[in-house]
Amino acid sequence: MAVPRSRILDLMKAQSRIFSTIFNPTNARLGNKILRQRLRGPALATYYPRRVATFKDLKALYPSYEMYDAFEEDRLEHIQIAKSRGKGAPKKKKVADTSNKKRKR
């Protein structure tokens, strides 16, 4: 002997009221499991250290002062040496070359 559906729904309503859950007779995906979880944003924000002022920031704040950035000078020198050996970055294309494209007929 089968129990009528209305009685089962009444039981599910009472059960959801007692255990403070969502009454969902159609079993639709509502995302309640995700929404009940603890928020992750504050934990992720505290994981990474705060950003401190860099040399670029100081240079932008005080453009009138002459500053020497040893790391930047070293980087530029390294790039210049690599270019002189032919190992630098390739030059950027100025105009797209359309002669190599296949034409549709």
UniProtKB/TrEMBL annotation:
Keyword Plastid: no
Organism from which the protein derives: Meristemomyces frigidus
UniProt biased composition (Basic residues): 84-94
Record region (Disordered): 82-105
InterPro entries documented for this protein: Ribosomal_mS33 (IPR013219)
Gene Ontology terms: cellular component: mitochondrion; ribonucleoprotein complex; ribosome
Principal cellular location given in the protein's record: mitochondrion
Entry keyword set: Mitochondrion, Ribonucleoprotein, Ribosomal protein
Listed name of the protein: Small ribosomal subunit protein mS33
Basic and acidic residues: compositionally biased ranges: 95-105
Similarity annotation: Belongs to the mitochondrion-specific ribosomal protein mS33 family.
Compartments (UniProt record): Mitochondrion
Keyword Protease carried by entry: no
